[in-house]
């Protein structure tokens, strides 16, 4: 069971706002109506950066609009965190929120199209940028160079990814240590938390949707790159869990937000500082290490199921729950069916199984019509082996990265859902680990899956006792994986297709698949889309 942790509430301490530096005429957010001189300054800054950002932004791993052209930018807010004076050797730091305008992808917006990660309507995503500014860029920072703007307030200066500069990364921690406001930015520290000074920063390289900096093996700062109005679940849920005394999730120590007039009533969560767990290993690494020596993983999987159930219980205690009745269950089944149809239209290998897979969703809807109900609550939303850490200190499991699937709208990620969705994500992750560890077709994944459910059931009900609910969610997850692999890693399609065959034929009478079904002998090197920031030491 988790050890008790004190309840923590935000203090929102405020410091004096700093005066603007020389790069910008003022530190400001972009309101609905600018004064003419502010509009001119904004146009000059953004106009000089557009040619650089148009080339640099699509190359970043965290850029969500890959494969679609950028048709324009809008400056949402510009804040000078550290002034840079011409001729000085010290760097400057400029914080920008910019909207990248992109057209929709083929098929987006058609009737029944799923708004999830695989289909993009025309987007106007807002990105958080931290730009270092220097006259002469030192050689060790040369790989971070974005370019030298022509015209505008940064004319001729080297503009680069600021997080790669230890001096600028340290400045962010100082802002969180001594909270306050600067223009549209608001820095907050949790009540009772003391953040030490002088912690050396280290940028984590293996990222996908965000960026993370480790400070002195004590804290990790996760910066969200694509942001929107509203509290990010990776701040909201760990704070709520800390309030219940659940120690399975590192509690936020500090965070910062943007309050932008005209961009929505709620602040945008920009970054969260949490305790770092040095020496810990994530579940993906541990599973592969066990597979490499053909070691048993059931004890670890059982303990992970126990930890997951504890977190689910604490979330249900801390935040509202709802009951899913016939209308909600029919809506859930219909959404899953739409995602299946979209995937089957795009991936021929899935089509022979479409009718059988649709049956899993039909069964769920039929139970709703028969009067069956389920509880829905806040969940992790993107749970897999890479989101679980076993700590070096006591060997206990901790869960991290509660953002959910970042490509999905915030309203969808914060919606109460059945806990079966998280369970299904973890069960699918065991299959991916077995494929990478060359144990596909063995009993390893099934034993790990069973042990996880047993551990979960020791705290709450065993997920296997709700077979229709679990099958529907695991099918939905496997369908998403098929579409992802077909579009991005076709050689790995074998992994989710094996699950598709199993889920389409739970009785085990599946005939050989038709030609082109995606069955190959290649093993997949990783879980679909599973490149996430870790709280582990290298």
TL;DR?
With about 550 residues, the protein is of the alpha+beta class.
Overall description:
There is one protein chain. Helices cover 34% and strands 18% of the residues. The chain has 538 residues and is an alpha+beta fold. The strands form 4 sheets. Strands 1, 2, 3, 4, 5, 6 and 12 form a 7-stranded antiparallel beta sheet that branches. The chain has a 7-stranded antiparallel beta sheet with strand order 7-8-13-14-11-10-9, with helices on one face. A 3-stranded antiparallel beta sheet has the order 15-18-19. The chain is globular and about 75 Å long. Monomer. It catalyses: D-maltose + ATP = alpha-maltose 1-phosphate + ADP + H(+).
For the record, give the distance between the C-alpha atoms at the N and C termini, rounded to a whole number: 28 Å
Number of helices: 12
- Can you give the helix content as a percent range? 25-40%
Mean pLDDT: 86
Question: What amount of the residues lies in strands?
Answer: 15-25%
Estimated structural class? alpha+beta
**What general form does the structure show?**
globular
Radius of gyration: 24 Å
- What are the low-pLDDT stretches, counting only 5+ consecutive residues below 50? 1-21, 25-35, 105-122, 511-527, 529-538
- Number of strand elements: 19
Outline the biggest β-sheet. 7 strands, antiparallel
